[in-house]
Amino acid sequence: MALTLTDVTLTYADGAGRLTALDRVHLRVPGGTIAAVTGPSGSGKSSLLAVAATLIRPDAGRVELDTDSGSIELATLSRRAAATIRRETMGIVFQQPNLIPALTAVEQLEVTAHLGGRSRARRGVTRSRALELLDLVGLADHARKRPAQLSGGQRQRVNIARALMNDPALLVVDEPTSALDSERGAAVLDLIATIAREHRAATVLVTHDPTHLHRMDAVYRMTDGHLSTLAVPAAA
């Protein structure tokens, strides 16, 4: 499994002209590895994630996702096909967990399995997988709690477990620690690094937190739409 972006360009309307958000970006993320993307606000990091996750179609370039079932050219998918690919082969961790208030933690994951086309699996199998993932993120004792009964860090861990529910080939993570204190944020980044490798997902992670960049396989900096490679910092 791998994600490959080749010569990807994305522009937005800006008055009478166009603003370049991504300028001929190249990126390759093999399965089981994590690419961290840093850079100032407005540099194009969120646009990069949106293109990789099929939420925005680029103006030019190729976006390929290699899965166990074959290679998919993401940039040319219709809206309906892109939505299906997101449900079935991607996990997206947003800055805010966006959990459904009425559902318990385990039900959040079960709904994801249903939307991802796994509704034909026996309910007991789906429940077992959901509980296994919640245990993996340290929430085995909170599986039947609703979002209002969980702390911010716990809700974010439910968010991570939910993103893994359908064994994604691609994991896209957008500032997962933005709403957390430094201790909880470090724990969440550690967790993502560990489980992304264990699940062989190609992972693109946008972060402003340099603390755990040494845990990443590659580090990139986005500046005015240009993506450049940085040296992975040594562990402290």
Walkthrough of the structure:
With 236 residues, the chain is α/β, with parallel strands linked by helices. It has one domain (2-230): 3-Layer(aba) Sandwich (Rossmann fold), CATH 3.40.50.300. Helices cover 32% and strands 29% of the residues. It contains six helices and ten strands, in the order E-E-E-H-E-E-H-E-H-H-H-E-H-E-E-E. The protein has helices spanning 45-52, 79-89, 105-118, 123-136, 152-163, 182-198, and strands at 2-14, 17-30, 34-38, 60-67, 70-73, 90-93, 170-174, 202-206, 218-223, 226-230. Strands 6-7-8-3-9-10 form a six-stranded mixed β-sheet. A four-stranded antiparallel β-sheet has the order 2-1-4-5. Helix 4 packs across helix 5. The longest helix is centred in the C-terminal third of the chain and has 17 residues, at 182-198. The radius of gyration is 18 Å and the shape is globular. The mean pLDDT is 88.
Brief summary of the model shown:
The protein has helices at residues 45-52, 79-89, 105-118, 123-136, 152-163, 182-198; strands at residues 2-14, 17-30, 34-38, 60-67, 70-73, 90-93, 170-174, 202-206, 218-223, 226-230. The chain has 236 residues and is of the alpha/beta class. The longest helix has 17 residues, at 182-198.
What does the secondary structure layout of this molecule look like, with pairings?
Layout: E1 2-14, E2 17-30, E3 34-38, H1 45-52, E4 60-67, E5 70-73, H2 79-89, E6 90-93, H3 105-118, H4 123-136, H5 152-163, E7 170-174, H6 182-198, E8 202-206, E9 218-223, E10 226-230
Parallel strand pairs: 3-8, 3-9, 6-7, 7-8
Antiparallel strand pairs: 1-2, 1-4, 4-5, 9-10
Helix pairs in contact: 2-3, 3-4, 3-5, 4-5, 5-6
